[in-house]
Write a structure and sequence with these properties.
Number of strands: 6
Structural class: alpha+beta
Order of helices and strands: HEEEEEHEH
Distance between the termini: 25 Å
Number of helices: 3
Shape: globular
């Protein structure tokens, strides 16, 4: 089944799922997924956009304790930079 039929928006072919100020990038069926938490926002015209975003590369295995699931973490300025590092980390992790 293609990811488009699931109804999730995608970035570079991987699903983006949002819940409040948290965005997950990647498939929960893979070994790793990226979690992005929007920590602060700023006004740009009439829009509220992400300002500070914490990016975490995580294991998807539910058997691993929550604290042990986080492999890497970083804070980025804006969603574009967060997605950029997220894609690089996820591609590298899934290639291993």
């Amino acid at each position: 089944m293609s990811q488009q039929k699931q109804g999730f928006p995608t970035y570079k072919g991987k699903p983006l799922v949002r819940s409040g100020d948290t965005i997950y990038y990647g498939s929960m069926r893979d070994k790793y997924v990226i979690k992005m938490d929007v920590k602060s926002k700023k006004k740009v015209g009439d829009l509220e956009v992400a300002d500070k975003v914490v990016v975490q590369l995580m294991y998807t295995d539910p058997e691993i304790r929550t604290r042990k699931q986080i492999v890497k973490t970083s804070e980025k300025d804006g969603l574009y930079l967060a997605l950029d590092i997220a894609d690089a980390w996820l591609a590298r992790a899934l290639a291993d």
